[in-house]
Amino acid sequence: MYAIQPFFGLGVQLSRGNSRFYKPAFLREIWLLGLPLWLFQEFPIRGDDLFFTLCHFRNVWCRSLSLPHIKKAQTSGSEPCLLMYMSILQATSIPRPHEARAALKEQLGKRKAFLVCDENTSRLCLPRFPELQSLPRYVLQPGESRKTMEQVLEFCGSMQMLGHPRSGLIVSLGGGVVSDMAGFAASIYKRGLDVLHIPTTLMGMVDAATGGKTGVNFDYVRNALGTTHFPVQVLLFPDLLETLERDDLLSGMAEMHKHAFLAGAPHWERALNMHFDDFLKPELIHWHAQFKQALVERDPFDKGLRQQLNLGHTTAHAVESLLLKHQVEIPHGFAVAAGIDFEMRLALELNTGISEDEVKRTSQRMRDFFPPLPHALLQANAIVHFMQNDKKNRRGITFTLAKAPGEILTGVEVDEAIILKHLQLFLHARNA
Fold first, then answer.
1. Strands 221-225, 194-199: parallel, antiparallel or unpaired by DSSP?
2. In the prediction, which pLDDT does 432 show?
3. Which of 159, 170, 298, 316 could covalently link to 335 via disulfide, CB atoms 3.0 to 4.6 Å apart?
4. Secondary structure of 204-224 in the HEC alphabet?
5. Any idea what DSSP says for residue 373?
6. pTM of the prediction?
7. How far apart are the C-alpha atoms of 69 and 83, rounded to whole Å?
8. What are phi and psi of 139, to 5 degrees?
9. In this structure, how many other beta carbons lie within 10 angstroms of the beta carbon of residue 67?
C-alpha cells in the first residue's frame, strides 16, 4: 500500500510503510507554476521501491505534474539511479544568434503579442524588426531612475485597455531596465503570462534578460520589489550592439569578466588577455548567456549555486542605490567592476583562500578596463547602510566571495565593522 503525504505544502511524496524516498534539496524548488522546465536529478533507488508523484498548487489544491521521461540507468557508481526529467518551471531557450529571427517569427505566429520598449529602443532598434512594428506597444521612459512601480502599472493598464489576454505574449525590446519591468508586468498581469526578451544591450544579452529575476526600484533600493518569472525565450541579435556607445558595451563586459572567473582558471586567463572587440563576438555572447542559464536551471530560485552570480554585487547594488539617491546613474557594469575589486580585497582579508597575486591582477584589470566611479559621492557609511537592505542578506550583510577562479563561497556573512574599515581603505586607494 502506497500513501500520499504532504511535503511542506509544496508537493507530495509516495511512501510505503516507514520507507520514504525524496530529496528535499530538489523538492524545495517546486513553485506555484504549472509551466514546463526540464530539470535533471538523480535519485538513488533500491530495486523498484521508488515511485514519485509530485503535485503543485495553482488554481486547485493539487494538480499532478507529468513525468514524461523516467528510466533506470547505471551510473558511474555501483548504485543504480532513477533518471527523472520533470516538468516544473518555465524553460528558457536561447537560440544561437543566426536562429533568432526564425524563432521570433515562430513565437509571433502562435498568439497575440504586446511589445514593450523604451524611447531609445523604439527609435534605434525597432526599425530593424518589421515583424514587431504592427504590434500594440507601450513605450517606457528610459533609465534606472524610471524603473518604478508606476511605470509597470501604466503598462499593465495599457494591456488591460486593449484586452490583451492571459494566453498572450509580452515581447520586450530593450536593455536590463526594460526586461526587468516587462518581466515584472508579465508576472503580475492576470496572474502571469509569457514574456520573450530581445535584449538590445550587451548587459542584457549576457546577463539581465536571462534568469527570470524581475523588479523595480523602491525607496532607492535596486529591485526591492520584484518576482521570479522565467522568459520563454531570450533572442540574441548582436547587430543591435551597433546602436550603443562604448560605455554601454563596457558595462556588459564586466559581467562577462565575472562569468569567466566563475567558469574557472582557463576562462579567466583568456578573459584577462582579451581586448575590447574580442568581447563582441556573437559566439562568445551566446556562450555567456548559456553559461548563466545553465547555473539558473540548476538553482532557479537562488538557494545555493546560483548565488555565485552575486560576486561583486553586494557592493555594486549598494553603490548604485547611493548614487540613485543623489540622482546620478552609472552603467551597472561599472559598479560591478568596482564591486568585484572590493570584494576580492575583502576575501583576502577574510582568508577565504584567494591568493594575493590573484587579488592584485584582478584589481588591476578592473581599474584598467573600466572607468572609475564618481568617488566624491561615495561615503563608506552610506554604502554600508544600503548593504543592510540587500536582498541576499541573512542575519547580517552577506557576500559571495572568491577562493580562486572557479571556486566560490556563497552566503558569507561579514561583520559591519570589517566592511566599513575596508571600504574606507578601498575608497581612499581608488581616489589616490
1. unpaired
2. 64
3. 316
4. HHHHHCCCCECCEEECCEEEE
5. P
6. 0.80
7. 8
8. -105, 115
9. 14
| Cα-based distances in Å from 66 to 30, 55, 82, 244, 297 | 13, 9, 16, 44, 18
Cα 324 to Cα 425: distance, rounded to the nearest angstrom: 23
8-state DSSP, 54: -
Which region among 56-70, 101-115, 189-203, 348-362 has the lowest average model confidence (pLDDT)? 56-70
Amino acid sitting at position 193: L
In angstroms, the CA 333 to CA 255 distance is: 7
Cell of 345: 580585497
Q: In what order do the strands lie in the sheet with 2-7?
A: 2-7, 11-16, 19-20
The C-alpha atoms of residue 315 and residue 295 are separated, in whole angstroms, by 22
Query: Percent of the chain, pLDDT > 90?
Result: 73
Cβ neighbours around 115 below 10 Å, total:
23
The SS3 call for residue 245 is coil
Which cell is 306 given? 546560483
Please tell me the distance from the alpha carbon of residue 392 to that of residue 204, in angstroms, as a whole number.
22
Round to whole Å and give the CA distance between 17 and 5: 12
What gap in Å lies between CA 235 and CA 106, rounded to an integer? 12
The pLDDT-based confidence of 200 (bands split at 50, 70, 90) is very high
Neighbours of 64 (CB within 10 A): 10
Residues facing residue 413 across a β-bridge: 398
